[in-house]
Amino acid sequence: MKLSVVIVNYNVKYYLQQCLESLQRALKGVEAEVFVVDNHSHDGSVAYLRSRFPDVHFIASAHNLGFACGNNIAIRQSKGEYVLLLNPDTVVGEEVIHSSIDFMDSHLTAGGHGVQMLTHLGERALESRRGLPSPVVSFYKMIGLCKHFPQSNRFAHYYMGSLSWDVPGKIEVISGAYCFLRKSALDKIGLLDEDFFMYGEDVDLSYRLLKGGFENWYLPVRILHYKGESTQKSSFRYVHVFYDAMFIFFRKHYRGMNALWRLPIKTAIYMKAMGALIGTTLLATRKKLGFCNSDAASIPHYIFAISEEAVQHCQQLATNNALKAEFRTPGKYDLENLHTALIQQYGGKNKTYCIVYDTDLFSFQDILNVFSLQPIQNIHIGFYYRKENRVITMTEVIGD
């Protein structure tokens, strides 16, 4: 067995379905197994998806065990030479898995690698390449030097801003959203630390890979990551879990550091957490008072790039869901020209647009590639699935 893919799911069945659809294409020609560990979802994820993906091993936990524990359950059952930890809110390009395997086969000192993650706007996510959050690195990020000097080798080390996006490079932290690992390396250093419920476990694992004598790499092949679709980042729970993970990592790996460094770092973490909690409180209050209602500019205008056979279904979908929409029927090989024309026509306007591409007409890889060419803040990516007559975007799942 060449590869074992592990996905931990929690209440995002449609995003997980999309992930598995893209993964099926990416795994063609690869001897692989796929595990989905469901962390006690309440949206019927397992019942909905099990019949649609009969080759996937579904493990339905009776409790929410957290990200680290959920992954470890499947890793212990895995048989692959490599293990891929994959988030359910990702879309994998058709070339990515093969590129990952080829790289690991030819770089025997690599313990693992990550890839270029795109946002729903087509922007490159900074989390694709990260440095270890040492006290100094964390301090530079928290006081804003990382943001103000994004390409500095010193101040922007948190996101390794001095590295090229276009060639493979050594990094320190591999994102847990797409974490491609050598199984023999895991056998040596151990699995994910289950003291981390969610967040921080990828940082800890990456650090242990480096300490074990392995290399961590970044590859310039693309996936889409919705970045926490299953997590309510405005919730108190998110703030608590995220900053608690920072403390766990800090205590585990920097316990013996000088007290003169411990105090300002701990203070900065507390201040950051307090600021986040205040922000979530204000946002919740504004919502309750009705100050956060959507305005006309934030309601997306949908542009469907679909086959002629799908037009009638999409028109009905738009009518049934009161969508502002228009429909284009490009030729199969006109993707880049079409996208460029739409960017020129709608980019930069004071209105939100969502280009919805037919996944039966275009490959996921080509869709991601064209979106990455010229990211525009008011134009989002969307996918249309003809079989389900469904649209999936960053913020919406629309279907009959």
TrEMBL record:
Residues in Glycosyltransferase 2-like domain copies: 4-109
Family matches, as InterPro entries: Glyco_trans_2-like, Nucleotide-diphossugar_trans
Highest taxon listed in the record's lineage: Bacteria
PANTHER family, per the entry: RHAMNOSYLTRANSFERASE WBBL
UniProt-recorded name of the protein: Glycosyltransferase, GT2 family
Phylogenetic lineage: Bacteria, Pseudomonadati, Bacteroidota, Bacteroidia, Bacteroidales
